[in-house]
# Entry
Amino acid sequence: MLNIQIEKMQKFHIPSIMEIEAVSFGKYHWSENSFEAELKNNLAHYYVAKHNEQLVAYCGFWNIFEEAHITTFAVKNEFRKQKIAEQLMLHIFEKAKEFGIKWFTLEVRASNLPAINLYKKYGFESIGVREKYYQDNNEDALIMWTQSIYSDRFKTLINDLKLQLER
# Structure
């Protein structure tokens, strides 16, 4: 597992984020203005992961009542498969508790099997489909939710995953 530092996203991170964004999401990626607006959004919480001071990943969620809606999640190509996404996932689950969040939700491309597998590993279940959700190719999105992050089953899962990462 790669050693990373996770911190709150700041405006000065955006140029590095845009490099990852373009590669990860193609033509229809978020703009710099979108990220700047999110940093001003009181419902939004965004985090970056750094390795040796290099920004290697980021993610964010909106806090909507007791629900966290993951809005974006990306890891720089050359840093994938090094448990960075898992470390970020654990981080946002911990942060969510500070805001009284009980559930997580997200949409993911139906073809994005690595992301779907990560989300399933971390307790997300597919509960539906948003047909033709993505603008670039009209691909469907899976709608995924967790059970309550305070449930015994979820807490056990997360504790087990934390232990696996620490090994």
